[in-house]
Design brief:
InterPro entries: DNA/RNA_pol_sf, DNA_pol_Y-fam_lit_finger_sf, DNA_pol_Y-fam_little_finger, DNA_polymerase-Y, DNApol_IV, IMS_HHH_1, Rev_trsase/Diguanyl_cyclase, UmuC. The protein is of the alpha+beta class. The protein has helices at about 20-25, 50-55, 65-70, 80-100, 125-140, 150-160, 175-180, 190-200, 205-210, 215-220, 225-230, 260-280, 315-325; strands spanning about 10-15, 35-40, 50, 75-80, 105, 110-115, 115-120, 145-150, 165-170, 250-260, 290-295, 300-305, 335-345, 355-360.
Length: about 350
């Protein structure tokens, strides 16, 4: 793998603070200062977002509502208003466009910005991030945290460092040490199952990950090994792209222990749905095709798909279709090492590129 210095870019990752819950608290004064969960209900469903007051009790997004209620008996459940969240997101994206044409949305509440070219003439990426955060607060009455660094991976990790309403700047000479200090469970893309697998392999921190050779990472994590190898060294050459239409939203898990029984497989698929559905809700369009990916322990991989005449609009339909695709393959004749579920047909608009003055961190 090429370990040359990455291109010197100035990247900001902006992440709204508890976005859905903060919008609800902004619009309903009775909710301010109280533990709020957006989505689900007291008895069933899944939490889509939690306020910081709720997070103090351990309530998190993608958590079953029943568990969230046990952790926080006074938790207030609020029905999501995605049209409102999309309107606020459009306001925030209009602010991004004042400072760079190169911004890449990850969801309604976060985005990468490449501000290497200083359109506003502020002199540094840090000053640009501060100005953007100030304008978001002034125009939406919401707070945003930001990470500033020389690549996307570190900027995203940095934006979470001083939440809520914080800023973290990681210059190039501090990038590798910053990554080494982080728990791997905070790495972008490392979910609970992967973190568990890493822990069983003795990998707890970025420094532990950096100590492993590429061959070992490829053997244990497949095609993802190269990404992990670079990330552990503060290397990420990905560009900020806003001309890339989003065709699908999905997730997959590789299991530390191969699965065989239908009940175990359904449980594993439901964990994937817990990850995917909030991403689908965050997207600004809907898809009609649900695709199940299944990989056996001999690495033979198959997919099964179902298409609908109308877009998939709710989690129940998405879950029912995923279950049906999986159960049609049961009982399995070989152990399963990976499952994935995707909704395809999603697109997000891009913006043209331009640029002017050079910029420092």
């Amino acid at each position: 793998m090429d370990e040359t210095e990455p291109p010197v870019r100035r990247i900001i990752h902006v992440d709204m603070d508890a976005f859905y819950a903060s919008v609800e608290q902004r619009d309903n004064p009775d909710l301010r200062g109280k533990p709020v969960a957006v989505g689900g209900s007291r008895e069933r469903g899944v939490v889509a977002a939690a306020s910081y007051e709720a997070r103090k009790f351990g309530v998190r997004s993608a958590m079953p509502s029943s568990r969230a209620r046990r952790l926080c008996p006074d938790l207030i459940f609020v029905k999501p208003r995605f049209e409102v969240y999309r309107d606020v997101s459009r306001q925030i994206r209009a602010i991004f466009a004042r400072y760079t044409p190169l911004w890449e949305p990850l969801s309604l509440d976060e985005a990468y910005l490449d501000v290497t070219e200083d359109m506003a003439g502020l002199g540094s990426a840090t000053a640009t991030a501060e100005r953007i955060r100030a304008e978001i607060r002034a125009e939406t009455s919401l707070t945003a945290s930001a990470g500033v660094s020389y690549n996307k991976f570190i900027a995203k990790m940095a934006s979470d460092q001083n939440k809520p309403d914080g800023l973290c700047v990681i210059p190039p000479h501090k990038g590798p040490d910053f990554v080494a200090s982080l728990p791997v469970k905070r790495f972008y893309g490392v979910g609970p199952r992967t973190a568990e697998k890493m822990a069983q392999l003795g990998i707890e921190t970025g420094a532990d990950l950096r100590a492993q050779p590429l061959e070992w990472l490829n053997r244990n994590f497949g095609s993802w090994g190269e990404y992990l190898y670079g990330a552990a060294r503060g290397i990420d050459h990905r560009e900020v792209r806003n001309d890339r239409p989003r065709k699908s939203v999905g997730a997959e898990n590789t299991f530390f222990r191969d699965l065989v029984s239908p009940s175990e497989l359904i449980e594993a698929l439901d964990e994937i749905i817990d990850t995917v559905w909030p991403r689908i809700e965050n997207s600004e369009s809907r898809g009609r095709t649900i695709t199940l990916k299944l990989r056996y322990n001999d690495f033979h991989t198959i997919t099964r798909a179902r298409s609908f005449a109308e877009p998939v609009l709710d989690r129940a339909q998405f879950t029912e279709a995923g279950h049906a695709l999986l159960l049609a393959l049961c009982p399995v004749d070989r152990p399963i090492r990976l499952l994935g579920l995707t909704l395809s047909g999603l697109e997000q608009p891009g913006e043209p590129r331009s640029g002017q003055l050079g910029l420092d961190l």
